[in-house]
Structure formats: structure tokens, C-alpha cells
Please model this.
Amino acid sequence: MLTKRDFLRSAAFVATAGIAKSVPASAENSVSLVEARRIAREAYVYGFPLVDSYRIQYKYFVDRTGPEFKAPWGQIANTPRVYTPADTAVQTPNSDTPYSWLGLDLRTEPFVIAVPEVEKNRYYSIQFTDAYTFNIDYAGTSTTGSDAANLLVVGPGWRGEIPKGIKKVIRSETDILMPIYRVQLFDPTDIDNVKKVQAGFKVQPLSSFLGKAAPKTARPINFVEPLTVETQKTSLEFFNILNFVLRYCPTDPSEVELMKRFARIGVGAGKTFDPGKLSPEMTKAIEGGRADAWADFATLLQKFDGGKVTSSDVFGTRKFLNNNYLYRMGAAVLGIYGNSKKEAIYPFYGLDEANQKLTGTNKYTLRFPPDKLPPVNAFWSLTMYRMPESLLVDNPINRYLLNSTMMSQFKRDADGGLTLLIQNENPGKDKEANWLPAPQGPFRIYLRLYWPKAEALNGKWQKPPLKRVT
Model:
């Protein structure tokens, strides 16, 4: 894992390993090629979640002409449907809960979010995700309950008076914050009830809530063009995007020395990283650092596939992750905006029982023995994703998942167990209810356990093996 301690240790290694030829990496600093590569590796691991999240937020809240645009900053965008293969901005999206999205710029003043009363049997949540992609807090069924409430969302350093009528204060350490709303959909005929819940979500500036004049507005943000999913892996402009995002991320005390280190290659809030001014040798060193970062991720992925690291380990607050930057990168790559473990966990299958990668050229079964279904307070689902894009899969019956709300439709085994069929070809009408369509090529499947019970969190319950049909 790459923590702050690892970063500093790598600096010590360079100091004892000898200094290579120094080439200017910015207008202010020079650094050896060896150390530049190490810093680039560290900065890429650190910065990937910030850059990828910015890519998504730009599509959702800035690019008004784009197909993925939701709403301007400070306005809630309700999506009164579940996600389909046409939704491509976010990797590994769920298709269980219609989303609502909100982008908040907290520089001028706080915002008040209002939630309606929601039926007690309907799960909903609001996940507050900052610019670092830390899940800083939650509201909803499992945390604040199902009653109507007002929530105050404040930015870094805000120390104002909390007004009456506020149930909870959400404190962000970044100027930019994205609340992500999820509302359970029981079945397709339930969508109008979900729309009613979504219509009850409201947001307004604190001054409006108080009936006072608004403070002076912060200077508008001149949003820069983001990279694409592909060019984030190939373009050194990545570091300029990171520098832009860091402007809105006050440096945490635990990262002061880290930021000083990053600055040696021109990475930091408001700095300019100019790839065109790098020598060929320095360019190769920085690109090598990026390659090293992806090698680190590949090693982490092996730990995921082997069950040594799970979603429970990689989503959460800054305190929970304890500055484990590789875990944060892994979380973003595999499923950005995933929930913290008390809200949801995501046991996934990248390999079958024989440790072979999954492909639509094979057929698989996933059997839950009697009384061994995923233990949840809300609901569970199994969703299919085509790889390497990690997006939902087009199929003839428009089915992207199987979930616990479909239990009455499933055909149970003779002993009461449940066997799900994962394959590309339709198994026939008599078995179709239990079929999760797969693409022809590589794929992964994710279990989602919303509001998991204790036995899912403490390891007493384990996901069953995925077996290839031979």
C-alpha cells in the first residue's frame, strides 16, 4: 500500500541511492530522473481519484451540451430511472436505485438540503463525497432515518452559527462536494413512487433558508477541459488537471510534507505542469512513474481477486483509509463513488472457482445454499459489467442485474437454495428467470449488499464460489 509513510520512505531511498542526472521538471525546481519517476508514481496514485471524479463532475454539472449533463452546480438532478448501458460517465454504476445528483460549490456559503419523509420499508441514502472521493458522511435510512429533515452542508473552515431546524451538519474539507442520492426501486411499476421521493429532495443556499441577503459570490470557476477515461492513462496533462482540482482542496495537515514533495515535479494547487518543457529523459521518467502506478494497481487487483482486499477496505473517510492512496485509487478504478461498508459492500467476481478470468464464452452458476442469501437490512443485487470498460451490458431482455426484489420470480432449488445462471446465451424460458446475461467477451459481476447485516461485515457470511459449467 502507498501511504504517506511509504512516500517519505521512498524519498529516503532516493537520497541513499545516488543522484541521477537532474533535468528541470518545472520552472522552479530540478529533480533527479530517479526521484522524478518515484514522485510521479506517487502523485499519479494520489491524484487518480481526484482527476477521474473531476471528469465525471464536468460531464454532469459543467458541459451543458454533453449527453451526460445533469444540472448546473447547486441544483438537484433527478434521474427517474435506473442506469442502463447508455450511461457511460461513471464506471461500475448500479442499476438498482434511481440516482439523484447534486454538485455543490461551498466557497460562497453553506447549503441546506431538505429530505422528505420516506416509507420506512424503502431504503434511500445520500452519500456525501468530496473532491478527494472520500465519503465524508451519510444521510438516509440507515443513518438519519426515514423522517423529513434539513441537513446543513458547510465547506472548509466555516464556523458560523447553526440555525434552528437542522438535524445534521455535514462538514466538507474540500470546496467542491457531490451528494449522491439513491432511492430503492422495488420493481418497474414502482417508479412513480420513486419519483415522488425524488421530488421531495430540495436544496438552497443557507442565506435563502434564513431569509437573508446572500453574501458576495465567490469568483466563478474557470473549469478546464477534462481528460477522457483513456487519455487519463496516456496524457501527462493528467498532472495539470490534478493541479486544478487541488486548488479547491485545502491541504490536510497530514499531507503538508507530501505536497512539498509533489511540488518538486510541478504538482500542487495552482501550479503549472508543462509537459512540453520536459526533456525527453524527464518525459520518460514521468511516464515511467505513471506506468509504475498502474503496476501497483495491478498488484492490488490480484489481492482483490484473491479476497485479501475487499470493498470494505477501500471506501470511506480520510480517517478510515488512513492516507492509503493506493486503496483510494483502486476504489476509483473499480467502482468510483462506492459506499462505505456500513452502507453497502461489494463482493465481486473477477475469477471463477478455478481462478480463471470470466468470459462470455463460458457458462457459470452461482448457488446460494438455503438460508445463505446475502444478509442485508435493505436489499442485495448481482450486476453484470463488461470489461475492461466496467459498464452495464446490452442484452436482448434488457436485464442488467438480479436482485432480492425479484425473489418471487426466481426458481428455487429443490432444497430451497437459489442457483443463478451467468452466461451469454439465453438458457430457455423455463430457466430465464434466474439468468443474468453476460457479454460475449470478458466481464466481472458485483454483488451489492445495501445496509449489510453484521454477519456480512464480520466475515461470518462469505460469498459463494462462482462455478464454471463444464
